[in-house]
Amino acid sequence: DETVVFWNFEDYPIPSSANLDLIYPNIESALHKMGFHGHLSIMAFGDKLYHDIDALSMANIAYDPEVSPGDDSCVWRMTGEIVSFLAVSFPMNYMVIAKQHPELYRVLHCLKSRNQIVLLLEPPGDTAQQDTLFPCVDSVVDCTKVFGGGKPIHESKAYPSYCYRCG
């Protein structure tokens, strides 16, 4: 199944010093390690942008600039995109990188009640102060949980863990 990551840059911006080239492969490898082997897409929302849009695109991160200034605009836009994916006719997994917001969590609860797989990826600490974000596969796995609790670990020997930073 395809996994789509919905990333709120307002809550968890990518630090300016982060190596963008590591983010996609580390998330993809972590998903493989957890038993999710389909295509990966990353969609980002918000105006805390420390990299230009072309650099994000080259790193396989689609940035949605259609967020209006104001309270919770990013959350509403991201939540709307999540709901729009319900219309797809193929199985899909959802991964969310965002802090708790009542409307977002209501929608995620609805997805879970429809037997959709919803993963939460919560980076540790203040991401704006970090030199790297998700520096290795295990850092992604450690920060991921299934919506509603639990760890989604289904390690497969067919997809060994590889750290793109360490080699």
Automatic annotation (TrEMBL):
Classification lineage: Eukaryota, Viridiplantae, Streptophyta, Embryophyta, Tracheophyta
Highest taxon above the source species: Eukaryota
Biological-process GO terms, alphabetical: regulation of gene expression
Protein name according to UniProt: NYN domain-containing protein
CDD domains associated with the record: PIN_limkain_b1_N_like
Coiled coil: none
Cleaved signal peptide residues: none
A single cellular component GO annotation: peroxisome
InterPro entries: Marf1 (IPR024768)
